[in-house]
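CATEGORY: protein folding

GOAL: derive structure tokens
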Amino acid sequence: MAVEPDRSAAPAPSDRVLLAASGRAAEPAFAQVMQRHSRIVYAVAFRQIGTVTDAEELVQDAFVLLWTKRARLRFVGDSALPWLLVTVKHLAANRRRALQRRGRHEAGDAGIDTARTADDPAFEDLVAQAFARLDPVDALVARLCLVEDLSYAEAAHRSGLTEAAVRNRLSRTRGRLRRELAEERGAR
């Protein structure tokens, strides 16, 4: 006797249908899309970035973007997975570039040989005097990024500025500190 497949169960709705849901149905429908694709998106993110924490953040960022762009999303077929995979790869590339930039900035924070100056009390006085001459907001940004080693985003949150303002202020402040410290050291 042949067993007939159960035709009463409706096929799972496509991502296109789920992401088109509105009102109270939007969040549960979006949760289904997340559940459906989060493992594969995480696997790709981890392969791209190499750390669990960064991969998890990339997955969260990709799904947040999916949520905010769901009404304007262009599908390949009825699945959001291709869009999610391309998005997480772009986010990973952006993260890698940001980490490289941060590494370059940290390596050249003030253009000073820290091994020679770390134990020099006269140098510490020069740095303190240079910081004292800074605009209070610039001094705060420099302290958050250079001393406390916060990211631009963290410094922006703590200072109430935008990330772009933090980046611009820090860039100008680094240049000013470099010049002032070089002049001071040259005068001695």
Remarks:
- The two ends are 100 Å apart (CA to CA).
- The chain is about 70% helix and 0% strand.
- Residues 152 and 163 are 6 Å apart (CA to CA).
- Residues 109-118 have pLDDT under 50 and may be disordered.
